[in-house]
Design a protein that fits this description.
Number of domains: 2
CATH superfamily of the largest domain: Cytidine Deaminase, domain 2
Radius of gyration: 22 Å
Strand content: 5-15%
CATH architecture of the largest domain: 3-Layer(aba) Sandwich
Distance between the termini: 93 Å
Largest sheet: 5 strands, mixed
Order of helices and strands: HHHHHHHEEHEHEEH
Shape: elongated
């Protein structure tokens, strides 16, 4: 007796997989990406409508991938076991881009720097403050998220940044934080905190190369806009007067 395993959508699932193996994600709709990820741990169930429901609830693909386990489990057809594909892909991509960045000099590879920061910080509902620690040759030593929450004087502590830089034996730093609103324009508080960080680091002989504010597929560069150089000049002027 032959047992045939069949269920609604089995042919569609195989076509999705064949399509991906043939040409990657080119031509895929966002819901099809979600569907493909759900099939990794949903052996005998059509995932198309579940994928569409997830996209409808969270609006965009990256928000689906950023959603918490509890939020995802509110979607009919998604549970603790079959959401592994959705959670795994984001972490794998983050690790891949981080390793790729650490193999190069980020100051000479702004594209890789932005790709990693944008992918790891976009879509978050809270501000995350990352620090990239560099050695004297501007090679990456480590990348850490030091603070979370609104970027204010009470949430970002220059002393802790300097202490961690000393712990990492870093000669230079790159700062980055995201704006959940999607608008990368820096606030007055962003500028104030950056100045405090530049001054604190200069005091300890640590160079600040950059502070990037990550928005929706764009960013604001404190270095490109002349802020970092201006803060360094102000520090030197103040110290000459002492």
């Amino acid at each position: 007796m032959t047992v045939t395993n069949s269920y609604k959508g089995i042919g569609h699932r195989q076509r999705l997989r064949d399509k991906f193996l043939a040409s990657g994600l080119s031509g895929f709709h966002d819901y099809e990406v979600i569907e493909l990820l759900l099939t990794l741990a949903t052996p005998q169930k059509d995932c198309k409508e579940t994928a569409k429901a997830a996209l409808k609830r969270f609006k965009t693909l990256h928000k689906v991938l950023e959603a918490s386990t509890a939020e995802l489990c509110m979607i009919d057809g998604i549970g603790p076991k079959n959401l592994i594909g959705l959670k795994l892909i984001k972490d794998v991509a983050d690790r891949y881009l981080k390793k790729k960045l650490m193999e190069k000099k980020p100051l000479n590879n702004s594209k890789e720097l932005f790709e990693y920061l944008y992918h790891s910080m976009k879509g978050k509902s809270r501000e995350n403050f990352k620090v990239i620690f560099l050695d004297a040759k501007n090679n990456v030593i480590a990348i850490e998220t030091l603070f979370q929450g609104t970027l204010t004087a009470s949430s970002v502590y220059p002393r802790e940044v300097v202490q961690e830089a000393l712990n990492q034996h870093a000669a230079a730093l790159i700062f980055a934080h995201n704006h959940p609103s999607g608008d990368p324009e820096p606030s007055a508080e962003d500028i104030s905190i950056t100045k405090q960080l530049v001054f604190a680091c200069k005091t300890m002989g640590i160079t600040v190369h950059e502070h990037l504010v990550i928005g929706n597929n764009n960013y604001f560069s404190f270095a490109d806009q002349g802020y970092i150089a201006g803060m360094n000049r102000e520090f030197e002027t103040i110290n000459k007067g002492k």
